From TrEMBL:
Keywords (A to Z) from UniProt: Hydrolase
Protein name per its UniProtKB record: ADP-ribose pyrophosphatase YjhB, NUDIX family
MF term (GO), any: hydrolase activity
A Pfam family matched in the record: NUDIX
Stated family: Belongs to the Nudix hydrolase family.
Species the sequence originates in: Kibdelosporangium aridum
Needed co-factor(s): Mg(2+)
């Protein structure tokens, strides 16, 4: 898989970052580097984009979707990280801001619909597992 995303959960919210390049709220994650596994890419991207150092990511899904520019089918490894305490987050060149988004609330116009859907599905799955 060429990329990984991390759904970071705290209480009933999911961490979203405001991407400096795409100008939208997204989940932390990105492309694998040469020689990396999908998990290593998730750990690295999470740290680079948020400052969170975590090795205990849980693999939850493979997301398959179609992109339009350029047209292609893409796969993502999706991981989950459940936090008990809100961490200190680090604004940087990639992430201009952070917010804890409740996936049960509406999707804002400046939010990635794909990332919001992935966050919602992981959130719903985790909530169902705890019931």
């Amino acid at each position: 898989m060429p990329a990984s995303l991390v759904v970071v959960m705290h209480a009933n919210t999911v961490l979203m970052l405001f991407d400096s390049w795409r100008k939208q709220w997204e989940l932390p994650g990105g492309m694998r580097e040469q020689g990396e596994t999908a998990r290593q890419a998730a750990v690295r991207e999470l740290h680079e984009e948020t400052g969170i150092r975590a090795m205990d990511l849980t693999f939850v899904a493979v997301a398959e979707f179609d992109l339009v520019a350029p047209e292609r089918r893409e796969l993502l490894a999706v991981y989950r990280l459940q936090l008990r305490v809100v961490p200190t987050l680090t604004v940087n060149d990639e992430a201009l801001d952070f917010r804890w988004w409740p996936p049960t609330s509406p999707i804002d116009n400046d939010m990635s619909p794909l990332d919001a859907e992935i966050a919602w599905r992981v959130y719903r799955r985790a909530a169902t597992a705890c019931s």
